[in-house]
């Protein structure tokens, strides 16, 4: 997609939008309107949203229309996820939703420049494209996906870079959860600054 199409951030390639309950991380159980943008070049083999990778397969939708949909749903919180939302300038989106009284949550690998004003950043760093410094400095939550024991070293590397108040979560990669959860339990018992995040929405069958 050409940059001109996005009209200074007034449109985004939209894979899906829905009102549900946050299923993982620090805000598990809280209601939020989810906006999943299309486009990602990180390429995680275990990604559960691979349909989001190609931006041009998803329609460009006006931010004003997304805001209208979120208001009609009765939402007060907006979660922007992907794909990889840091690919886009999100300044206009955050300004419009802030003006409407929303609290704004970003879920990102932090691979590209940080734009917009956020109440909370959930940083999920990826080895193949590490996060930029501004995400490490501002993240309220560090959520590292664990597929194998070596990923714990990557988690520790990033934990050493975030601010002291950042909440630390280890989340088992879904297809490996039965093998990985015992490892995480053992690790968290020995490293008490960490907590385990589970994808509860998958267990209870909600989006």
Notable traits:
alpha/beta, 2 domains, 207 residues, single chain, nine-stranded mixed beta sheet, TIM Barrel
Give structural notes:
The chain is an alpha/beta fold. It has two domains: 1-21 and 31-139, TIM Barrel; 143-207. The chain is 26% helix and 25% strand. The chain contains six helices and nine strands; from the N terminus they run βββαβαββαβαβαβα. The chain has helices at 63-73, 91-99, 133-138, 151-159, 177-190, 200-204, and strands at residues 11-21, 31-37, 60-62, 77-81, 103-108, 120-123, 141-146, 167-172, 194-196. Strands 3-1-2-4-5-6-7-8-9 form a nine-stranded mixed sheet. The longest helix is centred in the C-terminal third of the chain and has 14 residues, at 177-190. The model has no long low-confidence stretch (mean pLDDT 94).
In short:
It contains 6 helices and 9 strands.
CATH third-tier fold name of the largest domain: TIM Barrel
Q: What is the H-and-E element order?
A: EEEHEHEEHEHEHEH
**Strand count:** 9
The total count of helices amounts to 6
What fraction strand?
15-25%
Radius of gyration: 17 Å
Overall domain count: 2
What proportion of the residues is helical, as a percent range? 25-40%
How do the strands line up in the largest sheet?
Answer: 3-1-2-4-5-6-7-8-9
Shape summary: globular
Write the layout of secondary structure elements.
Layout: E1 11-21, E2 31-37, E3 60-62, H1 63-73, E4 77-81, H2 91-99, E5 103-108, E6 120-123, H3 133-138, E7 141-146, H4 151-159, E8 167-172, H5 177-190, E9 194-196, H6 200-204
Parallel strand pairs: 2-4, 4-5, 5-6, 6-7, 7-8, 8-9
Antiparallel strand pairs: 1-2, 1-3
